[in-house]
Amino acid sequence: MLLEAQSIVKSFGGFRAVDGTNLTLHEHELIGLIGPNGAGKSTFFNCLAGDALPDAGSIHFRGREITRMPPHDRARLGLARTFQVPIVFDGMTVRENVMVGAFLRRPHRHAAAAKADEVLAFTGLAEQANQQVTTLGTPGRKRLEIARALATEPVVLLLDEALAGLTAEEIETAIELVRRIHASGITLIVVEHIMEVIHRLTQRVIVLHQGRALAEGAPAEVTRDPRVIEAYLGRRAGRHRP
Amino acid sequence: MKSLPRVLLVAVAGVLVAAPFLSDNPFYQRIAALTALAAISASAWNLIGGYGGQVSFGHSVYFGLGAYSSLLAFTKLGVPPIAGAPLGVLASFVLSVIVGLPSFRLRGHYFSMATIAIAALAEVLVTNWAFAGGAIGLMGPANARSLADLLFRSALPYYALFLVVLGSLLALTYLMQRGRMGFYLRALGSGERAAESLGVPIRRYKLYALLISGAFTSLAGSLYVVMIGFIDPNSGFGILVSVNMVVMSALGGAGTLFGPLVGAVILVPLEEMTNALLGGGGSGAAYVVYGAAIMLLARFSPGGLAQWWSLLAGKGRRGAA
Amino acid sequence: MIFLQLCADGLLLGAVYALFSSGLTLIWGMMNVVNFAHGDFVMVAMYVAFFAFTLLHVGPLIFVPLAAITLFMLGVVVYFALVRHVMRGPMLGQIISTFGLALFLRYAALWAFSANFVSLPDTLVGGVYDVAGLRLSASRLLAGATALVLTLGMHLVLTRTDLGSRMLAVSEDRTAAALVGIRPDPMQALAWGIGAASTGVAGALIALFFYVSPEVGNSFTLLAFVTVCLGGFGSVPGALLAGLAIGVIQSLSAYFLGPSTKDVVVYALFIVLLWVRPQGLLGRA
Question: Which of A235, A240, B250, C147 is close enough to C15 for a disulfide, judged by CB 3.0 to 4.6 Å?
């Protein structure tokens, strides 16, 4: 067991965004985290990533407790994440952006640059390596997010809606990239809204609703589950099987 | 073709740097020395304010620390003022740790405000501290007791000394900028959350930048009193000392290697010449212009002249292609 | 007895601090831009009051509203000419923009009026009232009472009126507010106008009993920061409580520790506050 979250609770003001959610992640899995808006996905995700500190519950990663560990230490341990809205380091080139990630394991400039070039080639950004990062459009920025995270040589990669806002063609490329990342030995958790992506990529899916795990299982099962349908579409839709 | 502007730039720079040695105009030499000194402070500020994105409006604390350490060492211990410089640097390290560690938890604006308060506090405290000369300040040696007192009649030796320090600082900045620290600083300055998720220990790197920045600013303060021979709370800790560092860096381009130097080369001669033309009263007008300049910079070109330069250079490249 | 007297004086002055600090907290809460020139706005207002009196021979009944209107216009102009643009740009630009404004105002005043202090005559709002054994000067009473009423008024407008809730919506979440049809620009410009107007009133009132000089801006700015920090960023009631508290603290320390320490205590308090509890008494974290 690579990553385990137990009974995570997180409130904002009076509102319980995450209300006792569990998650287990085994080596080499590629699992999905889905749920309607407001289900608590982002908050739970941020607890895993270290951006938010849970009010209760615990998180263990590679045998160590990381519940209150800051994000930079989690990265050091091998847990990387991308941001839903890409954050680029403007004023730097695409390669330099990726080097920021590479420096984690390679303190020296040449080694970091070499690693960055390797990752850029892997993610298909090699041609834009010397461009200012601000010239990248949304799909490029999303790929940059992934490239930077990969440069930290993670064991687990958390992708936060990395495919949102892409065209059908771009989604194909992105799916293929995620598959290659998985094939290279990295374990993944993918948060997504796009069901097609979930079906094609993931082996196991967790559905969050109102801060709790509502259902868990293979994508095909879970999306037929009436409770899940109800959660997404409302009570009456759940009564009628499609 | 692309290398021609660069070669030209280096040649011009070389001429500018060498000129004071070849001229025998003392006014001109003095301006050169003051410019080099201002460039040291501004380049030091640039480490934390430009590269690190933590805008300090209170860097005068470090300048004052260095200046007062030097003259206190002279007046109380009788040693040459420059011998007090290491004390100033040490004190600046302590201050950086005490000030930096807590305030780096704060968001950008809070940090800037804290620096204003700290500098204001320092100025008031020193003004009321008789040991440090109170409102009157301290003076350096009137006559050179040895070469170590660094009392020269011409501004030229000072210029040479300041150039050496400036050169070292710029070299250090260049190495830093190319290496991990430079990348981490720039990353945390433009995207702290993302930087942290990539393993950058934010507070630690901000502190490193502040330690080095503070140390060189303190050294600049010591060098200032070595040349000028006098310090008081206003010239040591006053807000204008901080403002100068910020304006010069921002004008030339904060977060670039030569930005602060360019800013100093433009502003120091300008300020000295307006002072000479309008007498002492001219300095008030200079700061009105500074204020307006900062607003214009912020509004139209926050990256300073460096932003213009790269735009021009970019256009040139496209033209050649 | 001396203690009560000091507290009374402190509360009256503190109410004025509360007024202009409410303006700062409103601006800051609305758009995360810190107005480093806030104290210099107060200084400008003081000069407006002074010149209105010496050149136009009008009393506070005229020059207080006059200063309010003048500063309101200044605030709106600053928003449209400067703030609106820098908000979209890099952090460095945002931070130095209002700092540049502060320098500009301060040194323009220094150049135009020189560093000499001027002041309005004591007799302008004359008289000393004896209230339950405490001696309260009429000018300070007027200032304190007016400031208190206006600060409470500001709070009521923000929380009880339609306009107020629209402004608060923009401050909570600019994008969401835009999505429901509230245009952020006019709201933010209004915030700057009201925030500046608060300095207008405060400055004109302070001029009744303080000397006027171009240099006062810096300490008023820091005072406003401390008050906003203590009261909680974005909270007008917080600014009110904090302003009163700061006024009393200043008054007591000036008497017991000496007049030159009155600023020191405030700055030191500020630094401690930033480190221990930056969100203040009533603020959002």
Answer: C147
What lies within 8 Å, CB to CB, of A164 at 6+ separation is A84, A192, A193, A194
For residues B18 and B29, is the Cβ–Cβ distance under 8 A?
no
Does residue B243 form part of some domain? no
Task: For residue B16, tell me if it sits in a domain.
Answer: no
Q: Chain A neighbours among B 6-65 (CB < 8 Å)? A: none
Cβ under 8 Å to A: B residues 120-179: 178-179
C267 and B117 within 8 Å at the Cβ level: the answer is yes
Integer angstrom CA distances of residue C205 from C127, C164, C260: 16, 25, 23
Q: Which of A78, B117, B167 is nearest to C36 (CA)?
A: B117
Backbone angles phi, psi at B80, to 5 degrees: -60, 140
| Domain presence at residue B9 | no
Question: Which residue in the block uniquely carries the two structure tokens 């490249």?
Answer: B317
Enumerate the domain spans of chain A: 1-72+191-242
Burial category of C107 from C-beta neighbours within 10 Å (exposed 0-12, middle 13-18, buried 19 and up): buried
Strand, helix or coil for residue B69:
helix
Report which of residues B253 and B279 the model is more confident about: B253
The domain total for chain B is: 1
State which residues form the domain around B232.
Answer: 27-238
Beta carbons of B57 and B112 less than 8 angstroms apart: yes
B170 in Cβ contact with B178 (< 8 Å)? no
Q: A131-145, pLDDT tens digit by residue?
A: 999 899 988 999 999
Tokens matching residue C217: 């801006």
Residue contact A101–B191, C-beta within 8 A: no
The pLDDT value recorded for residue A238 is 44
Euclidean distance between CA atoms A132 and A130, whole angstroms: 7
- What's the pTM value of the predicted model, to 2 decimals? 0.87
Q: Decide if B191 is inside a domain.
A: yes
Q: Which chains touch A (3 or more CB pairs under 8 A)?
A: B
Report the pLDDT averaged over residues B111-130: 88
Give the mutation candidate from C31, C223, C267, C269 for the B interface (greatest B CB count, under 10 A): C267
**Tens of pLDDT, residues B42-62:** 999 999 999 988 899 999 999
Question: Does residue B193 belong to the interface with chain A, where contact is any CB pair within 8 Å?
Answer: yes
pLDDT digits 0-9 by tens, C109-125 = 998 888 888 888 877 77
Is residue C94 less than 8 Å (CB to CB) from chain B?
yes
The ipTM (two decimal places) reads: 0.90
Are C195 and C24 contacting, i.e. CB atoms less than 8 angstroms apart? Answer: yes
Q: So what's the architecture of A1-72+191-242 in CATH?
A: 3-Layer(aba) Sandwich (3.40)
- Residue C186, sorted as left (phi over 0), alpha (psi -120 to 50) or beta, turns out to be alpha
The radius of gyration of chain A from alpha carbons, rounded to an integer in Å, stands at 18
Closest CA to C116 of C211, C22, C40: C211
A181-A182-A188-A191 Cα dihedral, nearest 10 degrees: 70
pLDDT tens, position by position, B6-26: 788 788 888 888 888 887 788
